[in-house]
Design brief:
383 residues; mainly alpha; 2 strands
């Protein structure tokens, strides 16, 4: 699904950025946005050329301001939570913007002063974008989002959440005509999407959106469409995998009138059938074009973010070189952590799919974890 900026004010700033969500991105648990706090800034067509470098003093001043803003909103939100004060609507939005502004300002600083590029950090962010001395701030950021995005009390979790994703993705792909080997790829890709959307957390809420919820961060209409599409293929799945069909019957009975997005099984099932099942038959060609499993996961995450352009690129016969130049689509990419941080990234007015995949570096650690978990499941470990 297309993921527009969260919140009405952000609808004005597609050019410079933007959910997970709102695809919940998560260095912690939410999608990235490079917007200066309290300002709306547009990128003119001229800004599509290489951005003018800031002077070193200006870049340092902007970074210090952004860093202090991030610290301030972290303290404010922590105090509100601990004192049990009511939180504002979309309580993660200000945190999210402040964090992204800090990362973006640091990239501008290291562009102006490369000597500021420091040591690696535990989050796996490129050192040119993040100062490892600020790791405690991102740890606090993660902690706050974990509280604000906790599943509702009536959410129905699974004891095998990762295995569920793999089995559902595999079964849906088989129902769409894939052989066993390529259906396994679909299961692996499905697990990657789960990590990209929620960092592997089932049934989570969303502190930046009132629309996208649950294990695959779906909207109500997407989930309902998925339910209809699942009904259309369930018989064929029952024929070759009666155990999975029986599990589905059990989960349907369990969910009752609850929002399907808060039962892990039905949330995953409905989201995969809604957004990805029709693309699964293309997996043999995708594997040839993109042999790297993480690139394959990135491509399917783009189905979440910019579905129509991604499908058009797949149909072009030249996926890697297919170019996106529509400013709205570039804005949606920025809304989901691609070409988001620093003046040089935000100034891009077009990009090939190969460039887009390379720019999805914030997803790398999530997809690496998904790949490791998939290998554990294939080895027979509990998922």
């Amino acid at each position: 699904m297309l993921r527009p900026p969260a919140g009405p004010a952000l609808a004005l700033c597609l050019f410079f950025m933007p959910p997970i969500c709102d695809a919940v991105d998560r260095v912690a648990d939410t999608a990235l946005v490079p917007a200066p706090i309290g300002t709306i800034r547009f990128i003119s067509p001229a800004a599509g050329q290489p951005a003018l470098a800031q002077s070193q003093p200006d870049a340092l001043s902007a970074y210090n301001t952004a860093l202090n803003q991030f610290k301030s909103i972290l303290r404010q939100r922590r105090a509100q939570i601990e004192s049990k004060q009511p939180l504002p609507n979309l309580p993660g939005q200000a945190l999210y913007l402040a964090r992204n502004n800090m990362i973006s300002a640091y990239k501008d600083l290291t562009d102006a002063l490369p000597s500021r590029i420091g040591r690696p950090n535990r989050f796996g962010l490129p050192s040119a974008y993040f100062d490892a001395d600020n790791e405690p701030l991102l740890k606090e950021y993660e902690s706050l989002f974990k509280i604000m995005q906790a599943p509702p009390a009536n959410a129905q979790s699974s004891d095998t959440p990762f295995k569920d994703v793999v089995e559902l993705g595999t079964a849906i792909a088989r129902a769409k005509g894939l052989d066993a080997a390529h259906a396994e790829v679909a299961g692996r890709i499905s697990l990657g999407i789960f990590f990209a959307e929620t960092n592997g957390n089932q049934n989570m809420g969303n502190a930046r959106s009132n629309t996208y919820k649950g294990s695959f961060q779906s909207g109500v209409s997407e989930d309902q469409n998925g339910q209809r599409r699942w009904s259309a293929i369930k018989k064929s799945i029952a024929a070759f995998d009666p155990a999975l069909s029986a599990r589905d019957d059990k989960e349907e009975a369990r969910v009752g009138n609850l929002d399907h997005r808060y039962n892990h099984w039905t949330a995953v099932r409905d989201a995969l059938v809604n957004a990805h099942a029709d693309v699964f038959p293309r997996i043999p060609a995708i594997v040839k074009a993109l042999p790297n499993p993480i690139d394959q996961m990135k491509l399917f995450e783009l189905i979440q973010i910019i579905p129509s352009p991604t499908k058009t690129a797949l149909n072009s016969g030249n996926l890697a070189n297919y170019r996106i130049s529509d400013p709205t689509i570039m804005g949606y990419l920025r809304n989901n952590s691609v070409f988001t941080f620093g003046q040089a990234d935000r100034a891009k007015t077009s990009a090939s799919f190969r460039e887009i995949l390379n720019a999805m570096w914030l997803f790398d650690s999530k997809f690496e974890r998904a790949l490791a978990k998939f290998n554990e499941i294939k080895a027979g470990k509990k998922g």
